[in-house]
Structure formats: C-alpha cells, structure tokens
Design a protein that fits this description.
This protein has three helices and no strands. By secondary structure, it is an all-alpha fold.
Length: 65
C-alpha cells in the first residue's frame, strides 16, 4: 500500500484529466506508471511530454515506450 495519493480517473481534473483522455482514447486504459506520476502534476506533465516525443519520433520504434 502506498502513502502517495495518486489521481484516479474519476477524480481527475484539468490537465491530468485531459491527458488521461488521451490514454483512454488510444490504449483504452490509464497505464499504472502514468497514474503514479499524477502524484506531482509537473512531473506528470514532463513524463507525458517525453512519451509523446518518442511516440511521434520518425525513426524510433514505439516499443521503447
């Protein structure tokens, strides 16, 4: 059991809610690592930016994610 309070999908607001919608639309779920990063909204944002960078990179394979 973790003492960190993560943001569940039902409780998400603002930027985290918008980001969760991206995952739901593409993967149909919120990956647990991304949910864990929701503890800190700035860290969550940076992790999402990094994931989107690799996802849209022209020569890197999506399996890196």
């Amino acid at each position: 059991m973790s003492f960190l309070k993560t943001v569940k999908l039902e409780e998400a607001e603002g930027e985290i809610k918008d980001s969760y919608s991206l995952f739901l639309g593409q993967a149909g779920m919120i990956p647990k690592p991304m949910e864990m990063f929701s503890v800190n909204p700035e860290l969550f944002k940076k992790k999402l930016e990094m994931a989107m960078y690799y996802r849209s990179h022209p020569t890197l394979d999506n399996s890196l994610l």
